[in-house]
């Protein structure tokens, strides 16, 4: 195309656009389109600004909570002069004595003990229920079991604790000739509480396993149970483990339900049937009876800091499991 032809075409296009602009209907359409585009651009900028402010406030709130708990919790060691070894290995807890005793081993062991018992009970039950809901009877699982799990999630923790206090503690007392308030009672109550979490997360993980893997396993001659065990559960193991870790995180931080059935004694438990105490129970029972700024008060904040550190550890484990699954 020569230069003269290009010039002619440009002049014709300019003439056509000018004619369109002189047309009132066309000019109105172009004006409306311009205002609509401008409005959309403003809405997009406003949306970005609002979401950025929300994310910033959330991050600021998280950092503020971390700083507040850390500053209060570390005051026990940096201001009151309590040694870290005494706090984490000492067996005597008497902050009001002279000098004060700040051994938190009974609280820490109690928290880990009930969490371990609850996990050992809830993990196989939850994963087994998830397999039944997704592989054995999916219709029944969706219509009956899933609503039951949702109902268990909605029950307040105080109800779990009161049921355990009314039924479980007397049952253990009559069957084993013990006090009834024990690590086992706290672990069983927590197992029921975290069971919906483990079940729902494991069921979602199992449901994401491709059907082609099941078909290939069955085509190779594997039975249904062999397929579930060696193919389905193996493929969904990261998701199932995530559900277990999330359940452990909830169990470790639960306060009221465990406090009602565990006995709340400062003695180190000698077995499953002995009463004990947890970090959350110790905090809720004593925080309102202490004076802010005293070593006793700061020691309770140190226990809060231990709970926070464990929660962050659980979150880190979940992230690592998810990253490992994504890498595969």
From TrEMBL:
GO BP terms, alphabetized: phosphate ion transport
Boundaries of every ABC transmembrane type-1 domain copy: 108-318
Ion transport among keywords: no
Compartments where found: Cell membrane
Pfam families reported in the protein's UniProt record: BPD_transp_1
Keywords: Cell membrane, Membrane, Phosphate transport, Transmembrane, Transmembrane helix, Transport
Gene3D superfamilies attached to this UniProt entry: MetI-like (1.10.3720.10)
One Gene Ontology CC term in the entry: plasma membrane
Molecular function terms from GO: phosphate transmembrane transporter activity
TM regions (residue ranges): 49-70, 102-131, 151-172, 178-210, 231-252, 299-322
Membrane topology (UniProt): Multi-pass membrane protein
Function: Part of the binding-protein-dependent transport system for phosphate; probably responsible for the translocation of the substrate across the membrane.
Annotated family: Belongs to the binding-protein-dependent transport system permease family. CysTW subfamily.
Protein name per its UniProtKB record: Phosphate transport system permease protein
Organism name: Brevibacillus laterosporus LMG 15441
Highest classification ranks of the organism: Bacteria, Bacillati, Bacillota, Bacilli, Bacillales
């Amino acid at each position: 195309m020569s230069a003269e032809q290009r010039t002619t075409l440009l002049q014709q296009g300019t003439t056509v656009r000018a004619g369109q602009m002189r047309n009132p209907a066309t000019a109105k359409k172009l004006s409306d389109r311009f205002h609509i585009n401008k409005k959309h651009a403003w809405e997009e900028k406003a949306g970005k600004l609002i979401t950025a402010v929300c994310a910033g406030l959330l991050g600021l709130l998280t950092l503020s909570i971390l700083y507040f708990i850390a500053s209060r919790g570390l005051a026990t060691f940096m201001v009151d002069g309590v040694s870290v070894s005494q706090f984490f290995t000492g067996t005597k807890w008497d902050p009001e004595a002279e000098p004060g005793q700040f051994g938190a081993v009974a609280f820490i062991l109690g928290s880990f003990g009930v969490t371990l018992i609850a996990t050992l009970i809830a993990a196989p039950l939850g994963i087994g229920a998830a397999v039944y809901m997704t592989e054995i009877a999916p219709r029944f699982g969706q219509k009956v079991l899933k609503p039951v799990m949702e109902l268990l999630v909605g029950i307040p923790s105080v109800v779990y604790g009161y049921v355990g206090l009314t039924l479980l503690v007397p049952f253990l007392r009559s069957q084993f000739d013990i006090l009834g308030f024990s690590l086992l009672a706290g672990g069983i109550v927590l197992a029921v509480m975290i069971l919906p979490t483990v079940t729902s997360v494991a069921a979602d993980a199992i449901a994401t396993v491709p059907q082609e893997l099941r078909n290939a396993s069955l085509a190779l001659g594997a039975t249904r149970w062999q397929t579930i065990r060696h193919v389905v559960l193996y493929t969904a193991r990261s998701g199932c483990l995530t559900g277990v870790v999330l359940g452990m995180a909830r169990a470790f931080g639960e306060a009221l339900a465990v406090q009602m059935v565990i006995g709340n004694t400062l003695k180190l438990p000698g077995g499953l049937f002995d009463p004990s105490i947890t970090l959350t129970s110790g905090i809720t029972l004593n925080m309102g009876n202490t004076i802010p700024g005293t070593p006793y008060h700061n020691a309770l904040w140190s226990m809060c800091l231990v709970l926070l550190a464990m929660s962050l550890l659980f979150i880190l484990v979940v992230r690592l499991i998810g990253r490992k699954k994504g890498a595969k």
